[in-house]
Amino acid sequence: MNKKTKAGLEELMQTMRALRGPEGCKWDKAQTHQSLIKCLREEAQEVISAIENKDDENLKEELGDLLLQVVFHAAIAQEQNRFTLEDVIDGLNQKLIRRHPHVFAGAKAASAQEALAQWKEIKRLEKAGKEAKKIAL
Fold it and tell me: Which of 15, 31, 79, 133 is deepest in the core (most CB within 10 A)?
């Protein structure tokens, strides 16, 4: 991540902390994961519409709105000492590396279909491992 992106992400998190802080916005402070579900669905649909309409300017704006949802949920989780935005970013990066062995681990994928098949199989194995851990507990 370049310095500008990193600084922008930190500034965005500071803005969210201010919005949810003691002197912040009453609406923002009242939100929960549950209360934001409708907003998350709407923003995802607006991204899809912008893509379908081939409207890059609107897509840029709607992706920002979708990013707001990620930041919002991460801020709520951080306030509850559950996880942070950094945890979300790190988890995503690790998943991308694990699920692309043809890029990061010397595996072969001769086509997009083979790469997708690898992704799906790795995902299946990961989910099976998580379920096995739940059962063991």
Answer: 31
Give the range among 27-31, 63-67, 105-109 with minimum mean pLDDT: 105-109
Query: With 0-12 CB in 10 A as exposed, 13-18 as middle and 19+ as buried, what is 43?
Result: buried
- Please report where in the chains the tokens 């916005």 appear, as a residue: 25
pLDDT tens profile 24-52: 999 999 999 999 999 999 999 999 999 99
All domains in the chain, ordered by first residue: 3-83 (1.10.287.1080), 99-137 (no CATH)
The answer to whether residues 72 and 24 touch, using CB atoms and an 8 Å cutoff, is no
Contact present, 72 and 16 (Cβ < 8 Å) = yes
Q: How far is CA 105 from the centre of its chain?
A: 24
Give CA–CA dist 69/40, Å, rounded.
Answer: 6
